[in-house]
Amino acid sequence: MVPNPAQNYVQIICGQEVPNAKLLVYDLNGRLLKTANSTDNITFTVDTSTLPTGIYYCTVANTTYTAKLVVVK
Length: 73
Known about the structure:
The chain has no helices and six strands. The protein is mainly beta. The chain has a four-stranded antiparallel β-sheet, with no helix packed on it. Strands 1-4 form a two-stranded antiparallel ribbon.
């Protein structure tokens, strides 16, 4: 995941292909704030420029794969 801390975007690169996965970004209260799809089943990029400074939870998931990450902005 780069960059972390994020400024205008964050890019998550999975170690394997994750077909039909979504990137979900949540605040600390569990509210879904952003979603993103991958164009190549490996890389996810989400615009964080409109998010206030803070800590966010990100989940990349499909029906067989789940990864959870923490992003600082």
